[in-house]
Design brief:
Helices cover 48% and strands 26% of the residues. It is an alpha+beta fold. α2 runs parallel beside α5. The protein is globular and about 45 Å long.
């Protein structure tokens, strides 16, 4: 199960955070800070998996943004890494060459994409074609309103 999905830039600012398990507000802030410190100190030659508290962090850095999934230690880390990659591909296709500003100013679209991708901490859809078709449909509905 995925407990949370966090996007942070190189300065440690959390751009997007989606929580699938309940955490207190102060605990969320503490987790974000600890995760940033953990990831920024890791050399790039190490794996993208980190044992963190009672969880496993799976992360990937794209264009200066850390995409981090916190999952159970029993989950398949490679599947989570592939999910991150597929999510970034969907972002890139939807926003046409995505950058950090797209994440900041189009956060509601990023959350909609996350909701199409993950449901209650589990991977819902793994087809990029289906996800992008749903997002384009939502964009059409938004234009009509």
């Amino acid at each position: 199960m995925i407990h949370f999905f966090i996007l942070q830039n190189r300065q440690g600012q959390t751009r997007i955070a989606k929580w699938y398990s309940s955490f207190e507000h102060e605990e969320k802030k503490k987790l974000q800070s600890e995760i940033y410190r953990t990831l920024i100190q890791r050399p790039s030659k190490y794996t993208n998996f980190v044992e963190f508290r009672n969880y496993t962090l799976v992360y990937r850095r794209y264009k200066g943004v850390f995409f981090t999934i916190c999952c159970d230690p029993s989950d398949n880390e490679m599947a989570m890494l592939e999910a991150i990659h597929l999510f970034v591909e969907c972002l890139d296709d939807y926003f046409v060459d995505v950058c950090e500003l797209d994440l900041v100013f189009g956060f509601y679209k990023v959350f909609a994409l996350l909701d199409e991708f993950f449901l209650a901490g589990e991977l819902q859809e793994s087809s990029k074609k289906v996800i992008l078709a749903r997002m384009n449909y939502l964009a059409e509905v938004e234009k009509k309103v």
